[in-house]
Structures are given as C-alpha cells and as structure tokens.
Model the fold of this input.
Amino acid sequence: MPVTTSSADLARLPRFPEGFVWGAATAAYQIEGAAEQDGKGASVWDTFVRRPGAVRDGHTGEVACDHYQRFDEDVALMRRLGLDAYRFSVSWPRVLPAGTGKVEPRGLDFYDRLVDALLDAGIEPTPTLFHWDLPQALEDEGGWLNRDTAHRFAEYAAVTAERLGDRVKRWITLNEPFVHMSFGYGFGVHAPGHALMLDALPVAHHQLLGHGLATAALRSAVPDAQVLISNNCTPVRLRTDARSDEDVAAAEAYDILHNRLFNDPIVTGGYPDLSAYGMADPEWGGVVRDGDLATVAAPLDGLGINYYNPTWVTAPGDPTAGLPFDLAEPQEAYRRTAFGWPVVPEGLTELLTGLRERYGAALPPVWITENGCSQPAGLRDQERIDYLAGHVAAVGHALGHGVDVRGYFTWSLLDNFEWAEGYHQRFGLVEVDFATLRRTPRASFAWYRDLIASQRS
Done:
C-alpha cells in the first residue's frame, strides 16, 4: 500500500535541531510472547491475565506479536522507517527468572541478538529495565511494597548492563512508576491487582529508590552511560464550571500525586507535601529512610516524558471516599481516540513549558519517550497521522519556548497487548493480525518515515 506524504504538509511542521532523535517504542510483555520459553520466569502479568475478568475477553500476552521469534522482521521494519533509536524493554524475569540469584543466559542472549541487529541497522538501542513485568517470585515477597525489591532491581540492572553495556549507552530505569503504583497497587486494574488506594504510596518510594540504586549500578558497569527515567505526566485542568477553592485544592492534590510525586524527588531531592492534602503523614510512616533521597536524586542525563492527554478534576463529591479529588470529563468537545482519550496536542506544549517553569535550570534534558494513540483497525489511519502531526508540532513549539527536548519516541511500533484491554486497542504504526502475526505497515508508518527523512534533508 504505497503512501506518499505531501511535502507541503511536512513543511508546516517545525524544523528540529540537528541531532534530534526520532524513535519508536514497545514493551516486552506487550510484544515478545514466548511467555514460558527458554527458562523465562513468570511475571506478575503472566499471573494476572489468568485471573477471571482481569483482562478483556481473557486475552493474554503468551504469544502477543511473537517478537521473541520475529525480531529480525521487526528490526527490518524499523530500518524502513529510518529510526534513529528504538526504545524496548527488557523482561526482568527473562533475565532473572526468580528476580534475583541465578541468571538465565538464554534471556540475555535474546537481548544480545536484538541489540546487534539494531546496531547493524544503524538504530540506537534504548532499553527500559522495568515496564511493569515484575518477577512473580518477588511479588510473592511483597513486590514493590517491599523495600528489598529496590535492591533486587539494582542487581538486575547490573547484570543486564554488564552484558549489553559495551554497546548500549542510553538506559531508562523505570517506565511510568505513577501508573504502575496507581493501576497495579492502588486500583487493582493492572498487575499485580492490589486495590490499596493511598496505602499504595510506599510503592512510589520503593520504585524511585530502585531507580536511584539502578542508576548507580548502570554507571558502575557502563561509565559513559546516559541514564533516564520515563514518567507519565499530565497537565491538570479544572472543568470550566469548577472554580471553587475546593476544586483548586483538588487540582493541586492531583498534580502532586500524578506529576510532582515522581518528578520532584528526582529533580529537587525532596518529596512534595502530601500531608497537606491528607494523602500521607509528613514522614511517610518511616518508608523514607536517611540517605534515600540522595540516592533517588542522583543527577540524570535526561527526563523521559510520556504524554497522552490532560486530566480534568473537581473537588471530591464524597470526601470520605479516600481521595482528595474526583476525576472528571472535560466540557469541551475534543476529538477522541479509540480509547476515548481526548486529543489535546497543545497539552504537551503546556506540560513541557510547565516543567521548565517549575524546575528551571535543574530540569534535565527532556525526551518524549511515549506519545501515540489508539485508532480502529485498518491501514488508512489518517486520524493517527493527524494526532502525531499535532503532537510533533507541540514538541517543536516547546523547543521554541526554550525547553531542551532531545528526542521523540512514538508509541507504538506495533499493535500489541494493551494490558487490561487485551488486543482491543491498536496503537501501532504497523498493523498486526493476531491470528497470523502478519505485519502490515499503515499509512501512519509512511507518514512517520517521510517526517524523519524530511528532517534530515
């Protein structure tokens, strides 16, 4: 299906600086399959998908896109795109089946082959060490509620870096620790499926402690490593009819919980005051220990930002329900993705410039490590093209306002297993027929290819 992008359309997009990195992203459990092959241990997602009703239509990631067997085909697609970099995640239980102790060499061999294939294609490998597939053996010991998991994460980072660090220089420690804490431990809609509400807050600190310990391990194994973390961030907005003091306080509370809880300690070395909104006592119940924040705040080479849409909030309708805010729908008539998410490209500019205003010179260089949309199945995905064009332009506007943005990774290269939605949400530049596993590039694939080429010309 040949598709040619209008040069006039591309010309309307900003010109990005020389050296700006164009990439695409995936995650291990969402594409690899091979769930029980070559010594891989069980992850919390392998367990969660077997829980009745946990995932739509009982879908699992046991096969997914079978990237484990077909990675050469997928790297060939990346070469056709002209990617500068590919962000993938390493499966912790594929490398350390029990989360600690014995290393599974066949797991490391797979990532070894993937890294070599990427480099042969002229694509920089950018692995994420944790994209939510915690080894089940560690979950059995408390998972991220257990402080010890942070230390096991650092061990895993060291093992992976010692094998791949001669060729891999850019590393991402965690993906979206807010989402993993809230969906996996707070509301129970993702693995491991705990519904602890605000009692899940220790998960935030233990993940960030693990990030800090892993940063040190990566730099020990790879002295010239560039280390990032990928945080899911959102501009927080009030509904147009919500302007009371209580509404404003709700927006501030949500901003703290979603954004500042995971950015402040990394950038400034301290947590925001959760106690002012009744979310935690000032001392975190002893969860935060002496020296932890210095570990968490180790200087980073970049801050990864995953952006999908703003979040609207109001004051809680039931103050006894446990959260100091209610999520709300916008009153404005935004276009929606197939997931029902409002399409607000200017929210990305707002988010990036807001980070610069909040943190000033302390803000590390920013990387957009995820941005994309789910659209209905089919190859003529003009709505996805429009979405990407709007958000790429939004990044360009942020650059124009002085934000140091170094790269953009679209989500996702392939249709994949979309967590609790199973295979019902399609984010890929490449359509995957999950019955045959045939890959077919969409119109958006050609658009992104032409965008990258135009930025180099």
